[in-house]
Give the backbone structure.
Amino acid sequence: METELLKKEPERIQDVIRQNNVGALVKSLDRLGRLDQNYDIKPLMNLLKHDNDKVRSLAIKNLAKIGNDNLATVFINVVEQDKSSSVRREAVSGIGRLRNISNKQILFKYLNDSDPEVVMQAMRGLLVFKQDKDVQEKLKKLNSHPNEMIQDVIKKEFFNTSSSGSDPNHTVSPDFMKNTLVYGDVRDILKSVKDESVHLTFTSPPYYNARDYSIYSSYKEYLEFLEEVFKEVYRITKEGRFFLLNTSPIIIPRVGRQYSSKRYPIPYDIHPLLIKMGWEFIDDIVWEKPEASAKNRNAGFLQHRKPLGYKPNVCTECVMVYRKKTDKLIDWNIKQYDKKIVEESKINGDFESSNVWKIDPTFDKTHSAVFPLELCNKVIKFYSFKGDLVFDPFAGSGTFGKSALNLDRFFFLTEKEKKYVDRIKENLTQTKIFTDSKFRPKFLDIDEFKRIVK
């Protein structure tokens, strides 16, 4: 039955061409399955001169399925003459899919193309012949290519020294850190923590000079402080695991009517520092709060309505998602766990399908800027497994630790403000009944913690 449909497909494509319906033509080309040497290629060949880039690209893609070495010259002509990057990329892919070693010289040529996507496809075609010495020599030179994705592929294929096997230490964490709050400066505390100890970090750092507990002499000093902390977080994070950072731009009020207030783009200034230290950017989640909870910034504009004076109410925060750099895919991390743990950690029911999370803010009697429990629950469920060790270096009121206990994870918290440490104790001791005394919450100062580590 499938063979009969394929025989009729050229006629169907011809009918669509005559109807001059580009959408229908794209749909018809996109659903073509496997094609053999006997397939009538004339309709596809005619489409190589079509005005629409998507149509030409799909025509090339389907021609490549046939596996006819004689089509190599067709693909070469397209690469040389077509102006569309997507079409040229598909044509180079077609040359590679022929898997013919005699085509390696032409693929070598495309390694020097100005379009990184074309270079990537030429690389893919040549990696089939990875054992060929000429191929190795040409590809290894791309280790210094300016495009970072090309560099990553070459490093993984030729310069990777890490093992892709199982890591028995990946799922475990130090017992002395489990369900532990340490009172002190996080920078001093983390000096006693070994590399790759935690599975997930989620935190909201102190806002620059916006609270009494976060006063810095300059914005530069503030960013340098965060950079120092997050370098240590990178070090203690296990391979390929996640770090989520909740921040938002802040406003420092003006000192008088004749001066301007100043707005600091904290998430955007921290981001390049994180990338430089090795974190890979994964996602940007927008935490949306009801506008009624935001400080009213447009009262003046409401009155005068003059251009340039508009100021929106800020009802969102950024939750930036990063992953510790690795050449291993997410599947590797998942496979380190027992199937039972993976099954028990699955997210059941509804989940956030977009990057906009609508969550009401939470208010606390002690802390002026606290995580909502709902936000912590989502982060822990989406980015960790049961039994993992999760970390918040700026613990505040300890909501992240409370969430961890509720979801059968272990917490590790650090906090330097005594009044918040007291609030965390109050929060966590009421969270769960502990039948195992080994992992009841521990509240230590930095000296006590250092003695336990030793």
About this structure: The chain has two domains: 2-158, 175-453. The first strand starts at residue 180 and ends at 183. The mean pLDDT is 90. The longest helix spans residues 2-19.
